[in-house]
Design brief:
Length: 182
């Protein structure tokens, strides 16, 4: 009983959960914060590919294992009527034609409710030719209501911060992997 009480007090005092501190510290370390998003996600997104390989905040996975759309789950919002956006992107660190902090979008789904990511049609369909090298970032963004978004016209040089600002979105969950050639 004392241990449980101490754990609850630690969360209340810091204002952040252990997962949020882990995701936030990791995203800062690799430059996702502040380049792509400004704040840490509350929770990690659980990302699992068909062979049981999972994203674990920067673990390496061979490109051959990330060719299919992964199963992505996250702790649903406590508000049942909140919608989410899911963005899968790769940082444009090696593309000199794109500004710092932009991403190449591999897939985007909008107006997700209750964590049913694949119950909606993608806004940007998943590209099954993933990068052979680079950091793939999975971001779940919270919407306050269902909405019609402006179409995402191109996959390159996508500015997630601007997209969030234009559509009044907030970071909710996230994860990433480092894709390596194999």
């Amino acid at each position: 009983m004392k241990l449980l009480l101490l754990a609850i007090l630690a969360v209340v005092r810091s204002g952040k959960t252990q997962d949020e501190e882990n995701v936030g510290a990791h995203f800062k370390k690799i430059g996702i914060i502040p380049d792509v998003i400004e704040e840490a996600p509350r929770d990690p997104a659980v990302v699992e590919f068909n062979r049981g390989d999972r994203a674990r905040l920067g673990n390496e996975l061979p490109a051959s294992k990330v060719k299919i759309v992964p199963d992505i789950t996250y702790r649903p919002s406590p508000y049942d009527d909140n919608y989410c956006v899911l963005i899968l992107g790769v940082n444009n660190t090696e593309n000199a034609n794109c500004p710092k902090g932009t991403q190449y979008i591999y897939g985007c789904w909008q107006n997700i409710i209750g964590g049913d990511v694949f119950g909606v049609n993608p806004t940007v369909s998943y590209e099954d030719n993933p990068p052979t090298n680079g950091i793939v970032v999975f971001l779940v963004l919270e919407q306050s209501r269902r909405r019609n978004f402006k179409p995402i016209e191109k996959r390159t040089c996508f500015n997630t911060k601007q997209f969030m600002q234009d559509n009044n979105l907030f970071i909710y969950a996230g994860n990433d992997i480092k894709v390596v050639p194999k």
